[in-house]
Amino acid sequence: MILVTGATGTVGRPLVRALRDRGAAVRALVRDTGGLPAEWDDRVHPVIADLNDAGSLAPALDGIDAVYLLTPVDPEAAQQARTVIDAAAKAGRPRVVLQAATGVGRRTSHVRFFEAHAAGLDHVRASGLPWTVLAPNGFLQNFLALAPSLRSGTLALPTGKAAVSYVDARDVGEAAAEVLTTGGHDGRIYELTGPEALTHEEIAGLIGAVLGREIIYRATTPGRARAALLDAGLDEWRASGLVELYGMYAAGEAATVTEEIPRLLGRPARSLTAFLTEHAPALRATPPTSQPPTSQERPA
Ligand SMILES: NC(=O)c1ccc[n+]([C@@H]2O[C@H](COP(=O)([O-])OP(=O)(O)OC[C@H]3O[C@@H](n4cnc5c(N)ncnc54)[C@H](OP(=O)(O)O)[C@@H]3O)[C@@H](O)[C@H]2O)c1
């Protein structure tokens, strides 16, 4: 039995789907059972728990062989990761597959969203549990959330001229399913990227080609980006965290392309062009708004 935290999220959904398709028994950690994904059949067993509530985690972890530990973008996420690992250590010592983000264990730029990943890695190393880390780059799915602001014809981000090897979150979920259902991954950190690193100018050009109109990349400043995010209603923690993330990208720290997804899945990673083509109707149909992105689920 494999426990998936974040099971209803961007990575969790394709992960649960991939595990189910492999015939694995899945326990999906959810905060409530209202509105569960319709595709979950009787091989997916929802369990109600909250990452902030240690007491709720013991039954969720009881009898499992492995846990996919994904924490949300939340100021409490570091403690949540430690709480799950402590509960796992008491519950039969399952394998822990920790989802982090690119650069975990080696990053130089500080990004507050990633503190939870570093804390989780330190804690799982100290726990004595068998562990593996998946460290994906920014998700291609972020561009769906940016669609409304693209209606102005501009992609404005404080990312300079650096390239980013964005990855499709479905590939992350499918790679996670491979790691969770096969052996030989203990103590490994897998950096998961898309098949190419593109500058945001190149990305704007590709989006424009799909939408059939010009999209111009404008390299804005961190201060302006932060002010715009605050104006749009983001809280201070998330707005500043996003600007830190953009800074990490601008420093060129997210440009490496790895072969981990082709190696794990036996096929190429999904590309931005394929993603944009697949989602062109949704991108075109998005109503205009002046709101900039409002969470980490936005390009950075
Ligand atoms: N976005 C990116 O580009 C990117 C790139 C690399 C790494 N990451 C990392 O990926 C993680 C986010 O993954 P994601 O995008 O798949 O997440 P997501 O779509 O935001 O989903 C978050 C999941 O966490 C659940 N959750 C939130 N608070 C919870 C709590 N207190 N107890 C139990 N479950 C809770 C949510 O459940 P509900 O349905 O109940 O809300 C949901 O299933 C973060 O660690 C982030 O740093 C993100």
TrEMBL record:
Residue ranges of every copy of the NmrA-like domain listed in the record: 2-221
Ranges of compositional bias, category Low complexity: 286-300
Annotated region described as Disordered, given as residue ranges: 278-300
Any one Pfam family match given in the protein's UniProt record, by short name: NmrA
CDD domains noted in UniProt: TMR_SDR_a (cd05269)
UniProt protein name: NmrA-like domain-containing protein
Biological source species: Streptomyces chattanoogensis
Lineage of producing organism: Bacteria, Bacillati, Actinomycetota, Actinomycetes, Kitasatosporales
